[in-house]
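Milestone 3.1: sequence recovery, worked example.
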């Protein structure tokens, strides 16, 4: 469960540390670093959130459930 928490905190800390990406260079397809770095984090955050979700489910011992079934 702690690993799931770490996976959820990493994107928050990475995006709150603005001086690390508040620059124009390097550009990617004409987009300044500031924009494509944040857009890249959309996909990274999705992957980390899904991984944290799956880790939490497996830690609870239930990976699937049926509709109407108590959890």
């Amino acid at each position: 469960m702690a690993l799931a928490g770490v996976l959820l905190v990493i994107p928050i800390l990475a995006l709150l540390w603005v001086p690390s990406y508040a620059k124009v260079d390097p550009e990617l397809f004409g987009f300044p670093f500031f924009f494509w770095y944040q857009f890249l984090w959309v996909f990274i955050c999705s992957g980390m959130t899904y991984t944290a979700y799956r880790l939490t489910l497996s830690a609870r011992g239930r990976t699937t459930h049926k509709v109407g079934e108590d959890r």
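Residues 26 and 33 are 5 Å apart (CA to CA). DSSP finds two helices and no strands in the chain.
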